[in-house]
């Protein structure tokens, strides 16, 4: 029969207070939730500023788990004053974990050693979190039968991981943002540390620790109230121009900046357009497809949550309806209500022909039934696997199923000059899905040479003139020049097809753009 291990107190110092098991198991739940949140915060910040979310999360998770093991190993060297040690670890975790997001953002903005700061932070926070559970288990040994102890402690630990993961994606990031999320859980760790000074034992010597805990909690609370200023201080250094709007959504960080003659939209730090020259991009994106399509009544836009492609589409009187599928409802809400952007897109979201769907475009296409005369695909560049799936044969096969006879597909396809392999990977992937593809390019000063792919299910000639007159960029001469690719943008041989199970395009893209960034 298993028996509780003897001992007068949780810390071996003869304190009067014995730990209450239910309080300590609740503590396990809280610290496990906080621990997983710190890990997710580090991975999210890394993917936000460095791109390639799969790689960043994989490395962060690996380093964090190793640090947890290091912390668990180091706990064996703490033989006395367990209660005091646990409280000090909680306060240290509160500071290191709570400050992790603001420190990482500021490090990216002000230093060239971001990776060192990132992984150093992950190691420190992971080691501290790794110390917490072994110390608590040793405190719990005073009151809980040993065979139940490990099972119950681990059950609460894993439950906390689940709670933290769900809260992070569904509530914390959309409502609080990354900086406030880490500060909030640092504050929670501080509160646990303060409360622990009463219920884990330790006697009168805990009074000093209690005061330190209140000071740490006050610092974190003050930082929480100033989170927007902290974020702005980092983003003002990250972006060349004044930040005039910033919002964290469930899917991305939306930032708008303003220069003397233009304003710019960034998603997760990547430029999406500049108001001074976006018309060149959007005219090149939309009007060749309208010239190539046999009919123009029913149009699908995948992505394009800024409403600028829709603005060009709605110029055509023969358009009867436009279905725009964008995963982020806050992006379309901003585009339809923020005056600068709403005026730029000519209030396209207010047009009665517009029908907006908030869904993953691939999931939506798999369940949709309608056919479209024109499909405009205007996704951000494939800099991570979540976006890379929208450039695969699977996605283009879904598009082909929804393209009406004689219909045209157009896809933005990154730069054929700066990312030549990526550009031709997209073109060849579209062909592999059963399309006849005609790659083309346009000069957009904010981006440089930019690429597109026009495609149909049947053979066709490249369009020679836009169907509308009076465009700012495109006329007959410029339309013809779009489809002339100079030798430095010519077809790249030996490029692989981008498939859902390999996502080679993301690797191509990261490798090519790394040279320029």
TrEMBL record:
**Spans through the membrane:** 22-48, 54-74, 86-110, 116-137, 149-172, 178-199, 211-227
- Which coarse location class describes where this protein primarily resides? membrane
Keywords, A to Z, come to:
Cell membrane, Membrane, Polyamine biosynthesis, Spermidine biosynthesis, Transferase, Transmembrane, Transmembrane helix
Source organism per entry reads Pendulispora rubella
Which SUPFAM superfamilies does this entry report, sorted A to Z?
A: S-adenosyl-L-methionine-dependent methyltransferases
InterPro entries for the chain: PABS, SAM-dependent_MTases_sf, Spermi_synthase
One molecular function GO term is: spermidine synthase activity
Subcellular location field: Cell membrane
Domain PABS spans what residues? 221-457
UniProt catalytic activity: S-adenosyl 3-(methylsulfanyl)propylamine + putrescine = S-methyl-5'-thioadenosine + spermidine + H(+)
Give the protein's function. Answer: Catalyzes the irreversible transfer of a propylamine group from the amino donor S-adenosylmethioninamine (decarboxy-AdoMet) to putrescine (1,4-diaminobutane) to yield spermidine.
Q: How does it sit in the membrane?
A: Multi-pass membrane protein
Q: What class of enzyme is it?
A: transferase
What protein name does the entry list? Polyamine aminopropyltransferase
UniProt similarity note? Belongs to the spermidine/spermine synthase family.
Residues that hold spermidine according to the record = 282, 306
The residues responsible for catalysis, as annotated, are: 378
């Amino acid at each position: 029969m298993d028996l509780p291990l003897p001992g007068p107190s949780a810390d071996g110092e003869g304190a009067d207070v014995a730990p209450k098991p239910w309080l300590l198991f609740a503590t396990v739940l809280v610290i496990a939730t906080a621990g997983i949140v710190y890990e997710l915060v580090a991975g999210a910040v890394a993917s936000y500023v460095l791109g390639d979310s799969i790689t960043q999360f994989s490395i962060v998770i690996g380093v964090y788990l190793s640090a947890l093991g290091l912390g668990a190993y180091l706990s064996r060297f703490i033989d006395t004053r367990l209660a005091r040690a646990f409280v000090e670890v909680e306060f240290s975790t509160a500071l290191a974990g709570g400050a992790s997001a603001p420190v990482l953002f500021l490090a990216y903005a002000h230093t060239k050693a971001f990776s060192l700061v990132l992984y150093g932070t992950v190691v420190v926070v992971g080691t501290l979190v790794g110390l917490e559970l072994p110390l608590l288990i040793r405190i719990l040994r005073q009151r809980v039968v040993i065979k139940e102890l490990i099972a119950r402690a681990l059950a609460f630990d894993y439950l906390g991981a689940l709670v933290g993961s769900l809260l992070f994606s569904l509530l914390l990031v959309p409502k609080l943002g990354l900086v406030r999320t880490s500060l909030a859980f640092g504050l929670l760790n501080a509160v646990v540390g303060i409360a622990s000074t009463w219920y884990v034992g330790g006697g009168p010597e805990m009074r000093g620790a209690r005061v330190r805990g209140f000071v740490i909690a006050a610092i974190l609370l003050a930082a929480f109230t100033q989170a927007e200023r902290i974020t702005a201080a980092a983003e003002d250094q990250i972006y060349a121009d004044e930040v005039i709007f910033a919002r964290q959504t469930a899917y991305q960080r939306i930032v708008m900046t303003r220069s003397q003659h233009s304003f710019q939209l960034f998603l997760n730090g990547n430029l999406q357009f500049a108001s001074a020259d976006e018309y060149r991009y959007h005219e090149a994106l939309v009007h060749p497809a309208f010239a190539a399509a046999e009919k123009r009544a029913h149009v699908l836009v995948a992505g394009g949550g800024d409403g600028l492609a829709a603005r060009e589409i709605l110029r055509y009187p023969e358009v009867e309806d436009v279905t725009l599928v964008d995963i982020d409802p806050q992006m379309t809400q901003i585009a339809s209500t923020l005056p600068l952007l709403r005026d730029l897109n000519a209030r396209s979201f207010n047009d009665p022909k517009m029908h907006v769907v908030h869904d993953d475009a691939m999931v939506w296409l798999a369940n949709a039934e309608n056919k479209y005369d024109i499909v405009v695909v205007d996704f951000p560049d494939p800099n991570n696997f979540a976006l890379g799936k929208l450039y695969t044969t699977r996605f283009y096969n879904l598009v082909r199923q929804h393209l009406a006879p004689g219909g045209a597909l157009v896809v933005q396809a990154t730069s054929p000059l700066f990312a030549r392999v990526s550009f031709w990977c997209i073109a060849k992937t579209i062909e592999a899905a059963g399309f006849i593809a005609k790659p083309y390019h346009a000069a957009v000063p904010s981006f440089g040479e930019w690429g597109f792919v026009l495609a149909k299910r049947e053979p066709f000639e490249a369009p020679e003139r836009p169907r509308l007159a009076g465009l700012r960029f495109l006329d007959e001469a410029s339309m013809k020049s779009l489809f002339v690719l100079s030798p430095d943008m010519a077809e790249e041989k030996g490029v692989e097809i981008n498939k859902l199970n390999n996502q080679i395009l993301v690797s191509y893209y990261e490798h090519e753009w790394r040279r320029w960034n």
